[in-house]
From TrEMBL:
<dbReference type="InterPro" id="IPR036388">
    <property type="entry name" value="WH-like_DNA-bd_sf"/>
</dbReference>
<protein>
    <submittedName>
        <fullName>Uncharacterized protein</fullName>
    </submittedName>
</protein>
<dbReference type="Pfam" id="PF13412">
    <property type="entry name" value="HTH_24"/>
</dbReference>
<dbReference type="InterPro" id="IPR038475">
    <property type="entry name" value="RecG_C_sf"/>
</dbReference>
<dbReference type="InterPro" id="IPR036390">
    <property type="entry name" value="WH_DNA-bd_sf"/>
</dbReference>
<dbReference type="Pfam" id="PF13749">
    <property type="entry name" value="HATPase_c_4"/>
</dbReference>
Amino acid sequence: MNCSFLQNTRFQVAIYDNRLEITSPGGLMPGVTIERMKEGYSKIRNRALAHSFLYMNLIEAWGSGIPRLMKVMRNYGLAELEFVDMGIALRINLYRGKAKTDQATDKEKQLLKLISEQAKLSQSKMAAILGWKLSSVKYYIGKLQDKGIVERKESSQKGELQIVADVK
């Protein structure tokens, strides 16, 4: 809601290897500081847009977005948001996290042990052996793939899982 449409510039999103940069033209409103924004302070520049977003349930309240985003970033172990006041624009940098390939939960370790012993098992057979629901097996395989610990060779139907990283 900070973007100024009076300037002849555009809202920009830039994606780099290590970060996502969001640049909003218009700079900070008078009385708004980065520290106050982090605490949930809000001053609306585009009232019609804000009311439209509220009506469509795209936002829930004024000023709650930045603190909620900061909390989510913290919960995922990501670097704190970086705010850059450029005078005529505001830039927010979101830095990419590093995969924690050396750590696995107890459930992930159980699944990894089974994969190391019987890589060609179907997911339903893994669920039966572990006493889990099929959805749990799929969920934890997905987490292990996201962490770069496990890769699937060939198709998901006839392929096998391969452990490609060491874990603790």
